[in-house]
Amino acid sequence: xxxxxFASFESSVASVFLVPxxxxxxxxxxxxxxxISLPQLAAILVxxxxxxxxxxxxxxxxxxxxxxxxxxxxxxxxxxxxxxxLLYWLLGSNKDxxxxxxxxxxxxxxxxxxxxxxxRGEVVGDNPQAVDRFxxxxxxx
Length: 141
Fold this sequence. Notes:
The structure is a single chain. By secondary structure, the chain is of the alpha+beta class. It has one domain. It is built from six helices and four strands; from the N terminus they run αααααβββαβ. It has helices at residues 3-7, 13-32, 38-48, 60-75, 80-92, 128-131; strands spanning 98-107, 110-119, 122-124, 135-140. The chain has a four-stranded antiparallel β-sheet. A hairpin with a 2-residue loop joins strand 2 (110-119) and strand 3 (122-124). The longest helix has 20 residues, at 13-32. The protein starts with a helix and ends with a strand.
């Protein structure tokens, strides 16, 4: 996330309450992925969507910023999977069309992976041109 985007992150009542919840969920996700697969964790998150009271008050791009802040706290660099799991949970709470995608690319002998979220067919919280370079290997809806 750019400094400009981070600076635009406003402190609101929902944000103040949501960040600690997302940090806790992100830590739980990290622990869970040591014992269960990503699709299994996504299925659990789908069931936990009932417990997300703040999803209706913010637009998806704002939720992406809040998710990125929480993922930055728990993951530091390489936080795309953590951010995507949080955003998948938040956006799916409205029973909207949301998918979490994992993609890979091989550039100059390096294999890279990336996770991102699409909401109603639109990339949210990421640069659409940046994710186009990845071949999708997993889609969780």
